[in-house]
Amino acid sequence: MPKGRRKAPADRDNSARRVSAEDKIARLLGMLLIKDLKKKTDQVPLLRSAGFEVSEVADMLGITEKHVTVAHVRGRKKRKAG
Predict the structure, then answer these.
(1) pLDDT per residue over 28-76, tens digit each?
(2) Has residue 50 been placed in a domain?
């Protein structure tokens, strides 16, 4: 970057959103874990049991944290009954 030139606001925003290598690997492994499941309600319990936090699962699947919590409880009940 030339001397005296400031970063554009967009450049600063992108650096704040950087994801660590460990987080990227964890997300990829999570996605591999659920790749054959069609329903998000089936994917949630599997990701949660793999150790992902509610917020991480919500971000990965593009759903709300509340939806993740409900799907996780329903998935546990489904396994218990089956």
Answers:
(1) 898 898 899 888 888 999 899 889 999 999 999 999 999 999 999 998 8
(2) yes
Domain that holds residue 46: 38-82
The count of domains in the chain is: 1
Q: How many CA atoms lie within 13 A of 22 on its CB side?
A: 1
The reply to whether 79 falls in a domain is: yes
**8 A C-beta contact, residue 44 and residue 71:** yes
Distance between CA atoms of residues 63 and 77, nearest Å: 21
At a CB cut-off of 8 Å and minimum separation 6, what does 69 contact? 54
State the pTM of this model: 0.68
